[in-house]
């Protein structure tokens, strides 16, 4: 069964306190060299096919439920 | 005079909201998220809490609850609708109000008595206040940072739709210290602080919260 992945990320201009918290923890663990962290969400949707109609529907799902366009961007891709 | 209070799975402050409605002089009606009609209520409160466990985004799943179809339709007809905290988040997710609420910039939950300035005393929920009046009601949230793009913020300010603003230090990183906003018509108002927790002298910081509910009653009777 094909899988479609929707990645949702906070828009670049939106503050991401969770990413900041993760970033702040890195030096405490001895990791250096990471200059920023942004945290998002990954959704894996199992679908019967990846026809254009199905993908158009997933675009709609991503835009209406999985992401809030005011604060987030999303990408849709078919996982091979 | 009936004011409906919607209970979603995970609502916390629905009972307090119904109590506030009663103390203000109206009859509270408990509405259920799975209901398909609003009965004969003349105003609606979406209470605070963590509907659907805040899964996905705060308010994102509650927005699609059956009763929200009726709430959105009623709001568009002009019925007074108040969203408190999680209710505010649901109103934003439903696009009844612009913008969104994100995690507090300091990443910690905030719980305190908060001074607000009433910026617009001409909405369905604020007409018993005076413009510029300062009120103190509890604030308790983890995701209360109000954000919107600059154009939307300018429009809200320009149209007088910033209804409440935080006084003193911005408690959660809300842009332009915005604590509450309204729709264009002024019948839909959302705010992060909790007026329903400030309706009796015995508990809470006073009775400043009552004014929102008495305002709605006055709106409903057309006075």
Report on the structure:
The complex is a heterodimer of chains A (80) and B (223). Chain A has helices spanning 17-28, 52-66; strands at 3-10, 41-46, 72-79. With 80 residues, chain A is of the alpha+beta class. Chain A has one domain: Mth169, Chain: A (2-Layer Sandwich), CATH 3.30.1280.10. The radius of gyration of chain A is 16 Å and the shape is elongated. The termini of chain A are close together. Chain B has one domain (2-221): 3-Layer(aba) Sandwich (Rossmann fold), CATH 3.40.50.880. Chain B has a nine-stranded mixed sheet, sandwiched between helices. In chain B, helix 1 crosses helix 5 (210-221). The longest helix of chain B is centred in the first third of the chain and has 12 residues, at 66-77. The chains are: A alpha+beta (80), B alpha/beta (223). The interface between A and B is medium-sized, with 12 and 20 residues.
Brief sketch in words of this structure:
By secondary structure, chain A is of the alpha+beta class. Helices cover 34% and strands 28% of the residues of chain A.
- If you consult CATH, what is the topology of chain B? Rossmann fold
Annotated CATH homologous superfamily of chain A: Phosphoribosylformylglycinamidine synthase subunit PurS
| Number of strand segments of chain A | 3
Number of domain modules of chain B: 1
Radius of gyration of chain A: 16 Å
Strand order of the largest sheet of chain A: 2-1-3
SSE pattern of chain B? EHEEHEHEEEEHEEEH
From the N-terminal CA to the C-terminal CA of chain A, the straight-line distance is 10 Å
CATH architecture of chain A: 2-Layer Sandwich
Strand order within the widest beta sheet of chain B: 2-1-3-4-11-10-9-6-7
Q: Kindly report the average pLDDT value of chain A.
A: 95
The largest interface is: A-B, 12 and 20 residues
Strand percentage of chain A: 25-35%
Q: What is the annotated CATH architecture of chain B?
A: 3-Layer(aba) Sandwich
Largest sheet features of chain B: 9 strands, mixed
Name the structural class of chain B. alpha/beta
Shape of chain B: globular
Major sheet description of chain A: 3 strands, antiparallel
| Rg measurement of chain B, Å | 15 Å
